């Protein structure tokens, strides 16, 4: 018994037992497997897009990364606009939120939600409300890594 259980009244203990019996059990393992499979499917689609850029547009493996990411974000934004991505997210959970497509979904969802307020005050000011922190920390961490690399290379390291 924990200290919290000792301080509970009999009515509170009865309520906790009732709550435990009525609580909906979440299928954690099933949700993890679905998220893994859908996230993997997104990766397969991304790999196919990257290969398309390599074989049809003469990109290299290094240079095909940026247009691939942009295409994946565009596709997720398009699917969000048509209401399809929300259904995928309901089914997949973190499998659709963690990849870069989740970033596109976050940006366009804020735009859609605030479009009635106008393009400047609605869409423009709310576009990066959720994704702004991702951009900020991404740029800052890239700066720190580049700074460390520059210092290491300049003192004769790697």
List the helices and strands and how they pair.
Elements: H1 3-6, H2 10-22, H3 28-57, H4 65-81, H5 84-92, H6 94-97, H7 100-113, H8 119-126, H9 131-154
Q: What can you see in these coordinates?
A:
The protein has helices spanning 3-6, 10-22, 28-57, 65-81, 84-92, 94-97, 100-113, 119-126, 131-154. It has nine helices and no strands. The protein has 158 residues and is an all-alpha fold. It has two domains: 27-127, no CATH class; 131-158. Helix 3 (28-57) packs across helix 4 (65-81) and helix 7 (100-113) packs antiparallel against helix 8. The model has no long low-confidence stretch (mean pLDDT 87). The radius of gyration is 23 Å and the shape is extended.
Assembly type of the chains comes to: single chain
SSE string, helix = H, strand = E?
Answer: HHHHHHHHH
Rg, rounded, reads 23 Å
Number of domain modules: 2
How much beta, percentage-wise? under 5%
Helix fraction by DSSP (H/I, runs of at least 4) = over 70%
What is the end-to-end distance?
56 Å
Shape: extended
In terms of structural class, how would the helical and strand content be classed?
A: mainly alpha
Q: What is the overall number of helices?
A: 9
Mean pLDDT: 87
